[in-house]
Amino acid sequence: MNLLRVVGAVGPFALVALASCSSGSGGAGLEGTASKRQALDDDAGQCVVDDGVVEHSCHHASDGPFASTTAQVYPGNVFNDVNAPHTSHTVTLPGTAGQYHGAVLYQPAVSGKFGFFTAPNVPVAIFDSAGNAVAKDNEADVPATACALLNHVTVFSLLETETYRLVFGPAVDASVRVIVESLGAGGCHSCEGADLEASVTHSPYSRTDGKSQLEHPIPFDVPSEIPVISGNAGNHWARLSFAKAGARAVRCYYRGGADVCFPSTPEQIEKGKRYVFEYCDNGLSAGARAEADRFELRVTKSGDRTAKTTADLEIEDATCHGHGHEGAAK
User: Fold this and answer.
1) Which of 38, 62, 124, 272 is the most exposed place for a label (fewest CB within 10 A)?
2) Which has the closest alpha carbon to 125: 180, 164, 162?
3) Which UniProt keywords apply (predicted)?
């Protein structure tokens, strides 16, 4: 299996204290270096999925969010689903040793190509609501050098108007991990973007900003939310900065969704799993179209006293379809 190389990303930024529990820091320039990436090919040298999708899916395999569900016997009445986007689903399969086999529902939010990443590598088939099999577009093994937590990806073209039966097996193992990712218009080098990961720890305090520098500006929609993939945002602040050559950096501010600095109840912990858009310093609103080639994401404080808080934001070319985080306005 061949591995194709493409140029990737890095970026800008600074922050202000806006309320209790928040801390500020001074401004910084737009900096960063580009990173090399790889894409998965099939045995015939045909691109199957872009490297960015593999990296993104592997990240969710490692850090979640995680969900568990039980498949139903198929053909038969299927009622559990794996619709939650950007989620590592563990699906328990009915059956007996070596012959585990079952189905879950999947309804895509947009029409297009979708990569179904699995571990272990089990047979994957999709049927529409009428029971007709959907032909595979392509598939490839995921080498351990690309992601040790995923084994295989199968690509299907799906319609947002349809609810599908995603069938696994027959399989040796009684459960399978599946991560479903939209591949945009094509899934291979067609969708540029920046995958920004920023983290902060409470004690001792440390912070890592996420930066990305693209080869040229891309149009994108200002995100309405920024997902928290580990730890908790509390009610602290995050900042997304972006710019293009010769222009001043725009700074957009987001507030943790919890009502308190350090959430302790299930309700407040759940609220703290995202940063919510507040404002941009140039008047842009969430969902507004912007253009930039340099990006930076910063989180100021952790809402979890004992764990690192990490935010992950994927910014994608707005001319592509569907692969952005659910928090980004489409």
Assistant:
1) 62
2) 164
3) Signal
